[in-house]
Design goal:
Helix content is 0%, strand content 52%. Strands 2, 4, 5, 6, 9, 10 and 11 form a 7-stranded mixed sheet that branches. The radius of gyration is 14 Å and the shape is globular. 29% of the residues are buried.
Length: 124
Amino acid sequence: VQLIESGGGLVQAGGSLRLSCAASGSTFRIFVMAWFRQAPGKEREFVSAINWNSGNTYYADSLEGRFTISKDKDTMYLQMNTLKPEDTAVYSCAVLTYGPRGRDYTMPDIYDYWGQGTQVTVSS
């Protein structure tokens, strides 16, 4: 599975951005797709995930309802509203393929494929 992100950029605090992650290749293998982010000097952090078949969504508690994950065919989106300077990070999409049950979707180590990342910078 190949992943290409787009939509990052520079935005003022309070603004919005929409990230896209286009999947190609063996997309029938996708079980869950997710967004992670990594700020300078910090560990990679879970943002949101979506079950590719059921559409069930999962969010980090810290987002306070500001972000919305969605999908359309083989593309995943992340609508980010009311952005804050602390949202500044490289945002990456990831794919988890079918496998054992009970996996923790918030853990980056379980994901099988990653995009190259897109920079989001929120100015104060």
